[in-house]
Amino acid sequence: MNTENIQTWNDMIRGFLQSKQDAEEEKYLKNTLIKSVAKSYEEKRYFGEQHLKDFFDLKKNKKEESQTSLEFQRDKYFKMRQFTKKPENIDWSEIQYNYQKKCDTLQKKYEATLWLEDAATNAASVSFATHVVKLTHSKIDSPSFLEPVDN
């Protein structure tokens, strides 16, 4: 999150929520949408063309330093749609519809008042602890505990 533009708590909260929304959109593009298209290209043996194989290869096709991860995945998505050779089993209008639907869902999910309401509803599951085991050792399965302090 770019802290240069933060002047109020409102800016801070909105920036935090935007970063969460961007991360989910990036994950959807990378792990769902692009991965499924790559699978179709591979199944239809389109990877005989080296530029297509390289495009979907995570080791060969990396983001530029100036790009965010989301910008890179969006760019990849738009380039992918411009390919002239496309497997016939891919319904591009459905892909576009699902992507737009996902973006709309994320927009609503990370709208500040709705997100805060949802977080407040889930606050009942929060427990106080003086010794948080998972904080220092994430693989430990024992619960944290609260040690009362006498004044």
Average pLDDT number: 87
How many domains is the backbone divided into?
1
Sheet with the most strands, sense and barrel status: none
Shape: elongated
- Strand % is under 5%
Instruction: Supply the number of helical segments.
Output: 6
Count all strands and give the number. Answer: 0
Backbone structural class: mainly alpha
C-alpha Rg, in Å? 22 Å
SSE order: HHHHHH
Proportion of helical residues: 55-70%
Oligomer: single chain
Head-to-tail CA distance between termini? 41 Å
Low-confidence stretches: none
What can you tell me about this protein's structure?
With 151 residues, the chain is mainly alpha-helical. The protein is 58% helix and 0% strand. The radius of gyration is 22 Å and the shape is elongated. The chain starts with 8 loop residues before the first helix and ends in a 15-residue tail after the last helix.
Task: Give the topology.
Layout: H1 9-43, H2 50-56, H3 69-81, H4 92-109, H5 112-121, H6 133-136
Helix pairs in contact: 1-3, 1-4
